[in-house]
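Per your request, structure below.
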């Protein structure tokens, strides 16, 4: 589950396919889970792995926007700490993250989706930009869901509403 701002790296790491755009909040249903893509964000890549992990990359639309979210829906439940440890290892092994000096904070519990979940904050400096983000892992609908939210540090205020809308909109499909 590697993530980074650069579209080229995301393509290489996650091997996503077809892109689509949305100018209004869009309700998405994937693998038994429903969530929204907020206004001003677009799905740029989507894939389903051979082991049935559905992944979507959503990016904030517009010039000089840095918001990105990568949502992975696993078809079964896993220990969130194992998923976070695996995410950290994959990000550390990624040459772009490694070269940028990615730093991880300790795993911590936090409120997400009105439930206590496990999160892993991170930050790095890519050229002249300081990026920060976190990976949040939780269980819903008998599936494990991982959500990476990343942005340029200066965009945190602009991206807050979009990240909050995504964070509060996960539910089980009917």
């Amino acid at each position: 589950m590697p993530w980074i701002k650069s579209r080229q790296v995301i393509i290489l790491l996650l091997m996503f396919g077809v892109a689509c755009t949305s100018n209004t909040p869009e309700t998405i249903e994937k693998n038994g889970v429903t969530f929204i893509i907020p206004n001003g964000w677009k799905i740029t890549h989507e894939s389903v792995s051979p082991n049935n992990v559905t992944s979507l990359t959503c990016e904030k639309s517009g010039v000089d926007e840095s918001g990105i979210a990568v949502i992975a829906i696993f078809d079964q439940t896993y220990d969130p700490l194992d998923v976070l440890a695996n995410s950290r290892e994959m990000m550390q092994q990624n040459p772009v993250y490694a070269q940028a000096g990615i730093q991880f904070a300790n795993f911590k519990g936090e409120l997400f989706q009105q439930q206590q979940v496990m999160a892993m904050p991170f930050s790095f400096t890519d050229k002249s930009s300081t990026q920060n983000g976190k990976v949040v892992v939780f269980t819903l609908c008998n599936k494990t869901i991982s959500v990476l939210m990343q942005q340029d540090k200066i965009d945190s205020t602009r991206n807050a509403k979009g990240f909050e809308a995504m964070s509060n909109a996960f539910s089980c499909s009917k």
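Confidence is low (pLDDT under 50) at residues 1-22.

Regards,
D.
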